[in-house]
Amino acid sequence: MSDYKWYVIQSKPGQAQRAANELENQGFETFLPIIKVEKLVRGTRTLREEPLFPGYVFIELSELSSNWRPIRSTRGVARLITFGDKPAVVPDDVIEQIRDSVKQQAEISSLEPNQPVIIQDGPFSHLNAVFMEYDGDKRAFLLLELLGKWQRLSVPLSAIRKA
Protein backbone atom coordinates (compact mmCIF):
# COMPACT_ATOMS: atom_id res chain seq x y z
CA MET A 1 0.00 0.00 0.00
CA SER A 2 1.29 3.43 -0.90
CA ASP A 3 2.27 5.84 1.84
CA TYR A 4 1.19 8.81 -0.29
CA LYS A 5 -1.75 10.81 1.06
CA TRP A 6 -3.60 13.93 0.01
CA TYR A 7 -3.15 17.14 2.00
CA VAL A 8 -4.53 20.67 1.66
CA ILE A 9 -2.53 23.79 0.96
CA GLN A 10 -3.95 27.26 1.46
CA SER A 11 -2.86 29.61 -1.29
CA LYS A 12 -2.35 33.32 -1.12
CA PRO A 13 -5.47 35.28 -2.20
CA GLY A 14 -6.21 34.72 -5.89
CA GLN A 15 -3.10 32.59 -6.43
CA ALA A 16 -4.40 29.01 -6.23
CA GLN A 17 -3.59 28.32 -9.90
CA ARG A 18 -0.13 29.82 -9.51
CA ALA A 19 0.54 27.72 -6.39
CA ALA A 20 -0.57 24.54 -8.18
CA ASN A 21 1.61 25.31 -11.21
CA GLU A 22 4.68 26.12 -9.10
CA LEU A 23 4.25 22.95 -7.02
CA GLU A 24 3.90 20.83 -10.17
CA ASN A 25 7.06 22.45 -11.58
CA GLN A 26 8.84 21.17 -8.47
CA GLY A 27 7.59 17.63 -9.14
CA PHE A 28 4.66 17.49 -6.71
CA GLU A 29 1.31 15.93 -7.66
CA THR A 30 -1.45 18.53 -7.17
CA PHE A 31 -5.19 18.72 -7.74
CA LEU A 32 -6.99 22.02 -8.23
CA PRO A 33 -10.65 21.29 -9.03
CA ILE A 34 -11.95 23.83 -11.56
CA ILE A 35 -15.63 24.30 -12.41
CA LYS A 36 -17.48 26.47 -14.89
CA VAL A 37 -19.64 29.11 -13.24
CA GLU A 38 -22.18 31.29 -14.99
CA LYS A 39 -21.67 34.95 -14.02
CA LEU A 40 -23.41 38.15 -14.95
CA VAL A 41 -20.81 40.52 -16.41
CA ARG A 42 -22.12 43.92 -17.50
CA GLY A 43 -25.59 42.46 -17.93
CA THR A 44 -24.41 39.50 -20.03
CA ARG A 45 -24.29 35.90 -18.84
CA THR A 46 -20.83 34.43 -19.34
CA LEU A 47 -19.23 31.14 -18.35
CA ARG A 48 -16.06 31.45 -16.29
CA GLU A 49 -13.74 28.85 -14.88
CA GLU A 50 -13.15 29.14 -11.15
CA PRO A 51 -11.66 26.91 -8.45
CA LEU A 52 -14.24 24.76 -6.66
CA PHE A 53 -12.51 25.64 -3.37
CA PRO A 54 -11.12 29.16 -3.84
CA GLY A 55 -7.82 29.54 -2.05
CA TYR A 56 -7.08 25.82 -1.63
CA VAL A 57 -5.02 23.25 -3.53
CA PHE A 58 -4.75 19.53 -2.84
CA ILE A 59 -1.26 18.00 -2.86
CA GLU A 60 -0.22 14.34 -2.72
CA LEU A 61 2.76 13.70 -0.46
CA SER A 62 4.54 10.87 1.29
CA GLU A 63 5.43 11.26 4.95
CA LEU A 64 8.54 9.17 4.33
CA SER A 65 9.93 10.06 0.91
CA SER A 66 8.60 13.54 0.01
CA ASN A 67 10.64 16.66 0.66
CA TRP A 68 8.14 18.96 2.40
CA ARG A 69 10.53 21.90 2.96
CA PRO A 70 10.15 23.68 -0.40
CA ILE A 71 6.35 23.83 -0.08
CA ARG A 72 6.35 26.78 2.36
CA SER A 73 8.53 28.95 0.13
CA THR A 74 6.69 28.15 -3.11
CA ARG A 75 5.17 31.14 -4.89
CA GLY A 76 1.45 31.39 -4.26
CA VAL A 77 1.50 29.09 -1.21
CA ALA A 78 0.44 30.57 2.14
CA ARG A 79 0.59 27.46 4.34
CA LEU A 80 -0.14 23.77 4.72
CA ILE A 81 -3.45 23.20 6.53
CA THR A 82 -2.91 21.45 9.86
CA PHE A 83 -4.93 20.24 12.82
CA GLY A 84 -2.74 21.03 15.77
CA ASP A 85 0.78 20.13 14.65
CA LYS A 86 -0.27 17.42 12.15
CA PRO A 87 -1.01 18.13 8.47
CA ALA A 88 -4.68 17.58 7.64
CA VAL A 89 -5.12 14.39 5.58
CA VAL A 90 -7.86 14.22 2.95
CA PRO A 91 -9.06 10.63 2.35
CA ASP A 92 -8.51 9.25 -1.16
CA ASP A 93 -12.22 8.52 -1.63
CA VAL A 94 -13.05 12.20 -0.99
CA ILE A 95 -10.59 13.25 -3.70
CA GLU A 96 -12.17 10.71 -6.08
CA GLN A 97 -15.67 12.01 -5.31
CA ILE A 98 -14.53 15.58 -6.01
CA ARG A 99 -12.92 14.47 -9.30
CA ASP A 100 -16.10 12.65 -10.33
CA SER A 101 -18.37 15.59 -9.52
CA VAL A 102 -16.07 18.06 -11.34
CA LYS A 103 -16.06 15.74 -14.38
CA GLN A 104 -19.85 15.44 -14.27
CA GLN A 105 -20.26 19.21 -13.92
CA ALA A 106 -17.98 19.74 -16.92
CA GLU A 107 -20.12 17.40 -19.00
CA ILE A 108 -23.36 19.08 -17.89
CA SER A 109 -22.08 22.62 -18.47
CA SER A 110 -21.23 21.76 -22.08
CA LEU A 111 -24.75 20.72 -23.10
CA GLU A 112 -26.06 22.15 -26.37
CA PRO A 113 -29.71 22.75 -27.31
CA ASN A 114 -31.44 19.69 -28.82
CA GLN A 115 -28.84 17.32 -27.33
CA PRO A 116 -30.15 13.96 -26.06
CA VAL A 117 -29.81 13.39 -22.30
CA ILE A 118 -30.80 10.72 -19.81
CA ILE A 119 -32.62 11.58 -16.61
CA GLN A 120 -30.85 9.80 -13.73
CA ASP A 121 -32.91 10.79 -10.68
CA GLY A 122 -36.47 11.62 -9.76
CA PRO A 123 -39.82 10.39 -11.03
CA PHE A 124 -38.60 10.32 -14.65
CA SER A 125 -35.37 8.43 -13.95
CA HIS A 126 -33.96 6.27 -16.76
CA LEU A 127 -35.98 8.12 -19.40
CA ASN A 128 -34.49 9.77 -22.46
CA ALA A 129 -35.12 13.48 -22.98
CA VAL A 130 -33.85 16.37 -25.08
CA PHE A 131 -31.95 19.27 -23.49
CA MET A 132 -33.46 22.65 -24.44
CA GLU A 133 -31.73 25.30 -22.32
CA TYR A 134 -30.39 26.11 -18.88
CA ASP A 135 -32.90 27.26 -16.26
CA GLY A 136 -30.56 29.26 -14.04
CA ASP A 137 -27.30 27.75 -12.84
CA LYS A 138 -28.70 24.62 -11.15
CA ARG A 139 -31.56 23.50 -13.42
CA ALA A 140 -32.30 22.73 -17.08
CA PHE A 141 -35.36 22.72 -19.30
CA LEU A 142 -35.89 19.39 -21.07
CA LEU A 143 -38.37 18.03 -23.57
CA LEU A 144 -39.77 14.65 -22.61
CA GLU A 145 -42.19 12.61 -24.72
CA LEU A 146 -45.06 11.40 -22.53
CA LEU A 147 -48.25 9.80 -23.85
CA GLY A 148 -47.48 10.84 -27.42
CA LYS A 149 -46.93 14.54 -26.60
CA TRP A 150 -43.78 16.51 -25.93
CA GLN A 151 -43.76 17.95 -22.43
CA ARG A 152 -41.40 20.68 -21.23
CA LEU A 153 -40.06 20.19 -17.72
CA SER A 154 -37.43 21.72 -15.47
CA VAL A 155 -35.07 19.35 -13.65
CA PRO A 156 -31.92 19.77 -11.56
CA LEU A 157 -28.71 19.60 -13.59
CA SER A 158 -27.44 16.97 -11.17
CA ALA A 159 -30.27 14.66 -12.29
CA ILE A 160 -29.23 14.46 -15.96
CA ARG A 161 -26.29 13.21 -17.99
CA LYS A 162 -25.42 13.11 -21.67
CA ALA A 163 -26.92 10.21 -23.58
UniProtKB/TrEMBL annotation:
Q: Which SMART domains match?
A: NGN
* Any Pfam family matching the protein: NusG
Q: Which domain of life is it from?
A: Bacteria
Keywords associated with the record: Transcription, Transcription antitermination, Transcription regulation
Instruction: List each copy of the NusG-like N-terminal domain by range.
Output: 3-102
InterPro entries (UniProt xref): NGN-like_dom, NGN_dom_sf, NusG-like, Transcription_antiterm_RfaH, Translation_prot_SH3-like_sf
**KW Ribosomal protein (keyword) present:** no
Q: Which Gene3D superfamilies match?
A: NusG, N-terminal domain (3.30.70.940)
The record, for PANTHER family, names:
RHO-INTERACTING TRANSCRIPTION TERMINATION FACTOR NUSG, TRANSCRIPTION ANTITERMINATION PROTEIN RFAH
Protein name, entry field: Transcription/translation regulatory transformer protein RfaH
Gene source species: Marinobacterium alkalitolerans
Q: Which gene encodes it?
A: rfaH
